[in-house]
Specification:
CATH topology of one domain in chain A: Helix Hairpins
Number of strands of chain A: 0
Order of helices and strands of chain B: HHH
Order of helices and strands of chain A: HHHH
Shape of chain A: elongated
Strand content of chain A: under 5%
Chains: A mainly alpha, B mainly alpha, C mainly alpha, D mainly alpha, E mainly alpha, F mainly alpha
Shape of chain B: elongated
Largest sheet of chain B: none
Number of helices of chain B: 3
Radius of gyration of chain B: 15 Å
Oligomer: heterohexamer
Strand content of chain B: under 5%
Helix content of chain B: over 70%
Chain lengths: ~120, ~80, ~160, ~230, ~110, ~90
């Protein structure tokens, strides 16, 4: 039980629950903007999970200054690679969210409705 | 100590996420989604990732809110 | 192109750069001067907001006094509002009153409005010409003159010296 | 109702599948070999104190190029989608004027925000931050301008020039790494300098500044395409 | 050395008390304007005090903390002002205890003319 | 001693954030929620500073710097949207 009471586990659980909430919002809501909000929550949750994977027990930020010396860097810092991935992923997430919102706006101008049920053109 | 703070932040994030999904008013949902980003950024600092936290702060503090509100504004103006 | 405006903006930006980096390394200083100069030229040439400010000893002393006055006001009125919040009866008497200011320069007016907003108990809602509309948590008078004296009596004199 | 039940069932199934992943996760005790290599050799090979910057700009620089391209394509598609409709949007509309306080404050705050953005750019190899964050901060500064003065027009030509020049500069710096040093985006064709000083890490500050200008102008372009063009009353 | 750190920690504690009071104020006050009065102002002072306390504790951090305090001081009143102006324009309901509302009187006069 | 005082301060800050969250969920109007959001951002600046103190890293303060300068933009956007000025 004690293994679950660690920073990494708790943040990872938070991230996964946030992913679940985001997916639930995307598939259960009818409003198009709510679906985009669900997507952005999903994005945040995914980022939290990846960052929690980079954390080593009692580690500090992977930046070398007075507090962390070069010689002992390898034993003290967190993993820099997942952080670098998430760094770019957040900016891309903003771009993708803006793209989805542009689609929403375009769809709204076609049919004057934000309800997903009124877009039935390709429904079988 | 940091574990307790992480549990607190996780609960706050989940409550805000629930608000963002289930609130009827779209504006409130957007603000709640922005607040999720805010607390996620504090969580990133706790996880020793200041670079990621800085990115989330600079994106989530203004840009991600304004694009939602611009689209809402355009939808409102189409109706008028 | 207002030389004094650009110079004031440059000093402000360079000060921020120094505080942010916290070093006096030569290369860092050169970079700071270049960037601050570029931004000051770009943003300062079309406005005259900073132009009124001139750094004489008198203005410096008055600015220090102003800082102390506003810090004291903020702490005092914060305790006042905090006592109101803790009190179970919630003794508030709110209302929106109108006050008049003599200040003309936009920067001075903004600092005045922000000072009023920062002190709890008063909140600037709108500013039209020389009239400020203030939400006051404990309205003592509705008369414009008396309210002006009550709310901004201390700030205005100092700001008149600093921003002309 | 039945539909929601099915969806809930799917979600519970999804959670059941990944729950074994979560339950067995106990946290990492030590760095994996690749990260260890970066931590031990990064400061001497690259010369950047911020190892995340080292990974983003040099070790995984090609990924960064791809991500910037994705952002560029997203901005271009948004512009393409929304520009076509703007022609008939110039009917008169009521737009409330900004208060004087916000307008004066913006003249003070916009240079400050840009200064912070420049600090984040230039110290990207020493402190947290760099091109992506600085670009986002600068786009926030532009956003402050259009919030305070909604009628102000963008200089589109300057925006596109900045975007293409910085993109080309990024690629040219990468190719210079191939020609003068050992590989694409290798930063050691400029002297590495002393670890921790502002003129260190070879070409990383220059590369990061170009990334930052690129990201900033692309985010500004997205904001501009979403903005409503209107006249004030 | 010890005394200075204790003083700094005490100042931080005072700041956190103000943050707590701000939270309490925002819950207890009856309408939007009073919530702004009690909430954002108290939490601004609380943040400034806690940053000052940390600046007292370690002198190496003092410059960066001063910049943060400066930023908070100039940005926070602006957001309160904008949101209260928008709420008044929209006609947010004010509490029954309100004594006077001269701004809406003036706006009404303008629209009548 | 010092650590105990600072942990107490952290608990009080968390309680303040919790109260603001209560207003966020309860708040009858959008503007009330915007104010609650403002209180949460300002309070989390000092939480970030506390984390930086406990970790002993001055560089964490950069995040607080960005929040201090940019967090008001979100509230300004909401206000301008409500008064139809966007």
């Amino acid at each position: 039980m004690t293994q679950y009471f660690s920073l990494e586990f708790i943040t990872m659980l938070t991230g996964f629950l946030l992913i679940i909430v985001g997916i639930w919002g995307m598939i259960s809501q009818k409003n198009l903007i709510k679906i985009v909000i669900g997507f952005s929550l999903f994005d945040t949750g995914l980022n939290i999970v990846i960052v929690s994977l980079s954390h080593i027990k009692n580690s500090t930020a992977p930046i070398i200054d007075k507090a962390v010396d070069v010689s002992q860097a390898a034993s003290k810092i967190a993993d820099p690679v997942p952080q670098a991935l998430v760094l770019t992923s957040i900016v891309i997430g903003l771009g993708v969210t803006a793209l989805m919102l542009a689609y929403v706006l375009r769809l709204y101008r076609e049919k004057k409705s934000l309800d997903i049920n009124s877009y039935t053109d390709l429904k079988w | 100590m940091s574990i307790l703070l992480a549990i607190f932040l996780g609960l706050v994030i989940l409550v805000l996420a629930g608000t963002a999904i289930y609130h009827k008013n779209t504006k409130v949902a957007i603000i709640a989604a922005g607040a999720v980003g805010l607390f996620a950024s504090v969580l990133y600092i706790l996880l020793a990732a200041p670079d990621v936290a800085l990115t989330e702060a600079s994106i989530g503090s203004g840009l991600s809110t304004i694009i939602f509100f611009y689209v809402l504004n355009k939808i409102r103006q189409t109706n008028d | 192109m207002n030389i004094r405006n650009v110079a004031n903006l440059f000093v402000l930006l360079f000060l921020i750069w120094l505080l942010l980096t916290g070093t006096f390394e030569l290369t860092s200083l050169v970079l700071g001067v270049t960037i601050a100069g570029l931004f000051a030229l770009n943003f300062g040439k079309n406005s005259s907001v900073f132009g009124k400010f001139r750094l004489t000893p008198k203005v410096f002393v008055y600015s220090l006094i102003y800082l102390f006055v506003i810090a004291w006001e903020i702490v005092k009125s914060n305790i006042d509002v905090a006592l109101r919040v803790i009190n179970p009866k919630l003794p508030i008497n709110p209302g929106i009153v109108k006050i008049k200011t003599r200040l003309k320069s936009p920067m001075g007016r903004m600092i005045l409005a922000n000072s009023i907003t920062l002190t709890p108990g008063t909140l600037t809602i709108d500013i039209k010409d020389d009239e400020l509309y203030i939400h006051w948590i404990d309205v003592k008078t509705l008369d414009a003159e008396k309210a002006s004296q009550e709310i901004l009596g201390k700030f205005e004199k100092l700001l008149e010296v600093i921003y002309g | 109702m039945i539909k929601k039940g099915i969806l809930l069932l799917i979600l519970v199934g999804f959670f059941a599948v990944i729950s074994s992943l979560i339950i067995n996760f106990t946290g990492n005790e030590a760095l994996n070999p690749m990260a260890k290599h970066y931590a031990e050799n990064g400061p001497s090979e690259v010369g950047a104190a911020n190892l995340v910057t080292a990974v983003v700009v040099t070790y995984r620089g090609l990924d960064t190029l791809g991500e910037i391209t994705i952002l560029f394509i997203a901005a271009a598609i948004i512009g393409f989608f929304l520009k076509a409709h703007n022609a008939d949007a110039d009917r008169p509309s009521r737009l409330r004027k900004t208060s004087e306080i916000l307008e004066t404050a913006s003249t003070l705050l916009v240079p400050t925000i840009f200064m912070l953005g420049a600090y984040i750019f230039i110290n990207g190899h020493l402190t947290p931050g760099g091109g992506f964050q600085g670009g986002a901060v600068m786009a926030s500064g532009v956003m402050m301008i259009i919030l305070a003065r909604p009628t102000s027009k963008f200089n589109h030509k300057l925006l596109s020039v900045l975007e293409s020049v910085s993109g080309v500069a990024f690629v040219i710096l990468g190719v210079l790494g191939v020609v003068l040093a050992s590989g694409f985006l290798n930063n050691s064709f400029l002297p590495l300098g002393e670890l921790g000083s502002i003129l260190s890490a070879g070409a990383i500050p220059i590369i990061y500044v170009s990334i930052g200008i690129k990201v900033g102008s692309e985010l500004t372009g997205i904001l501009d395409s979403l903005k409503e063009h209107q006249n004030e009353i | 050395m010890e005394i200075r750190e204790t003083v700094g920690a005490a100042v931080t504690l005072l700041g956190s008390v103000f943050i707590f009071l701000g939270g309490l104020g925002i819950v207890r006050m009856p309408d939007l304007f009073n919530r702004i009065q009690a909430g954002t102002k108290a939490s601004t002072l609380g943040t400034i005090l806690s940053l000052l306390g940390l600046a007292i504790m370690n002198e190496a951090w003092i410059w960066k903390l001063l910049v943060i305090i400066f930023f908070v001081l100039i940005t926070n009143p602006i957001s309160s002002n904008v949101i209260s102006r928008a709420a008044h324009f929209r006609g947010t309901r004010m509490t029954n205890k309100t004594v006077a509302d001269l701004l809406s009187d003036k706006n009404k006069k303008i629209s009548e003319e | 001693m010092v650590n105990t005082i600072l942990i107490m301060a952290g608990v009080l800050m968390a309680l303040g954030i919790l109260l603001a969250l209560f207003r966020f969920i309860l708040g009858p109007d959008v503007t009330d929620r915007a104010i609650a959001f403002d209180v949460m951002t300002v309070s989390s600046i000092s939480v970030i500073a506390l984390i930086a103190y406990f970790a002993g890293r001055v560089i964490y303060l950069d995040v607080a710097l960005v929040y201090g300068l940019l967090s008001f933009l979100s509230v300004v956007v909401i206000g301008r949207y409500i008064e139809r000025g966007l």
